[in-house]
Each structure stands twice: as C-alpha cells, then as structure tokens.
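Appendix B.2, paired examples.
Example (i):
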Amino acid sequence: MSGRLIGAVAAGLLGLAACSPTDRGAKAEKTGTDVTSGTVAAALGEVDNHRKLSAALADTQLAPVLDGKGDYTLLAPSDAAFEALGEKGKALSAKDQRPLMIAVLRGHILPGQVTPHSVEQAIERKKGPVEMRTMAGDTVRFAKTEKGLTVSNGAQTAVLEAGDLTTPNGAVLPIDTVLLPAN
C-alpha cells in the first residue's frame, strides 16, 4: 500500500473519529431506535429486524467483543439481507462454516464509534468517499450516492438504512446487504 493511500485512510479515520462521541460519561445518543442497554451487542438484541445477526454474533462468540469496553461500530445487515443470501446464507450458518462466518462478521465491525452524521461530515470535508479498516483488516468505503449513504467492501455495496443506534460503547448502523468477501 502506498504512503499516500495510507495517509488518506488515516486522515479519513481521524476525520470520522473527530466527529464521533466517545466520552463514556456521556449519555448514549439515540438516533433511530430507543436503546435501553449500554452495549452494542445488547442494543442489537433489542431490535426485531436484526435477530439473525444477533444470533450469528452469539454463535461465533463475537457478541462479548461488542459487550466489552472498546468502542465499535457494527454495520448491521437486516434479517432480510441475510435471507436474500438464499442457500449461500444457509450454508454460511452451518457449524462447519463458523470460521467463514466469523470472517464475514469481522468485516462488518469497525473500530470506534461512527455515526451516519460523522460519516457525512467526513465525506464533506474530504470532498469525496472516505475509507475505514474493518476488524477483518479489510477496507470499506463510505460514499454519498443517489441512493443515500452507502458502504462498500469492494465486492458489494450496501445502503445505510434508518434506525441507527448509538450506545456508550459504540454504534449500530443498519445496512441492506450482507457484505461478503470477494472470494
């Protein structure tokens, strides 16, 4: 990766981080759905249209990470997004495919607390798309399009949907597509 690209990624991350509230003493910002719990994983469990994602996080033992002290943002595919995978989604849910499911889910987790507002501000400041690294080590790109705010992993693009949640340890950003790796 060239030094210029690394600098651009770092600038995008700094721009997003500068706009996101991470003060643990502050009350959680409630932007879409009421949150009664203080963690990303628990808040996700309270949202009806994310049951499949919540179950997958529990099954892969990634839910405790989102219950921890670190700040995380979860790009949260809806139940309909998982259902749209069809047979591929069913296969992905099989116990013998757990390592692949873990990789897919880690590709939906971003370090820090990112909100749609902070993403839009970063895009405006940069005058174009911004990139972030996922917990899988991949890069996702946020952009403003005619469809609204989108996020792409290079293989697929998802639209950010209404109903984002902000908790003291992170955020949940609902998306309409499961971002599967290119392979």
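Example (ii):
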Amino acid sequence: MSAVFVSYRRADAQGWAGRLGEDLAEAFGDVARFFDLASIPPGADFLVEIEGAIAKADASLVLIGPRWLDAADAVGARRLDNPDDVVRLEIASALARSIPVIPVLLGGASMPRSTDLPEPLQPLARRNAVELSDSRWEYDRDRLFEALEAQAGMRRVSAASADGSGISVGAGLQVRGSEIGDVTGVRGGAAGGDVEVLRDAELTDVKLGDITGVDLGQRDQP
C-alpha cells in the first residue's frame, strides 16, 4: 500500500493537517503517516524513528502555514535553526530520499526562499509548491492528489472502484455476489457465492459494498 508522510507543526497547521489526512484516506485509502514525538516509545531514538517512517513513504508533504518559517522555541530561537528540530529532521530525511517532496502552502503562506532556510533544507525552496486555500479547498486538493498520482504512482481508491477497473485488497476478506472470474488470488467459494480474498488480490467489476472487512491500514495520529 502507498504511504504519504505528512510533516507539519502543530501550532502552525494542525487543523489543516487533520482535514488533509481525512481527504487522503478517502481518496487513496488510509495512507497518511503523521509523525509526532508523542508517538515515539520512551527511550527510542527519534531520529531513527523519523527515518524509519519516511523510509516507508512514497511521497512526503511539507505543510507550510503562516508561522512555519519563524516558529520559535521557549527561549525565542527559531526552531528550524536547531539541528535537532523534529520538523527540520523530517524534511531533511525526506529530501535525502528519491521520493517526491511537495511543499503545501496553507493559510496564505508564501514559499520560503533558500536563503531563509538552514543549509540542509535549502533544496526544499526549489520544489514546486501546491497551495491549499480554504475558499477552493476541493479544487486545490485535487491538484495535489493529481501530483501524487503522477509523481508517486499512487492510485485513488474511489477512482478504481467507480469504473470497475479494479480494487486491491488485503487478506481474509469476503466478497459476496461476485463471479470467481472477477477475483484473482482467491481460495474456496463458488461462483456467485462468498470467496476468501488473499493478500494482494485484484477485483474487477466489484462494488465496495460487496466487500466485508476491508482493511486500508491505520493512520498514525498527530
């Protein structure tokens, strides 16, 4: 299953991140991976955890809100200038991989210049950004999703099921009222009856309503 790593600051873009995560799940399945220090087990190395999560991602979205660039810590120092800043580590790790890294501008934020960024993040300034505005959210969101399809090879669940072209599912699911010929990678069952769908099976001309126990994964909560 495809995965998207979503990098953001809570104080800057938490509401937008939640909304985008829901839209990603509806379009592609439950693909969004949010990283948060609270999700790291006690004693774990957060750099290792970040790199492990991004290693599983097909693309990374960097959510940039109005306070992203100048966000400061408790003593007034800019967070991005701290080599141990989590957001900085997330972006640097994603840029080091051969995956699409897409800046997403929120709340009227502007794309930072390379001179505004610490050296490890300067390549981000050369990435073409997508703006998500509240007034045209659906239009902007679809442009972002088209970019994920084109650059990361992702496929929308809704599009796959709507035209009967195929649905990828996991193991142990049941498909009702479908011909055996509509399902590859099955065990047991009879034509027109229930069949057990194996991992990575493909279905054609099958409605989502005919499938019970669909498992699209679980999203890590911010």
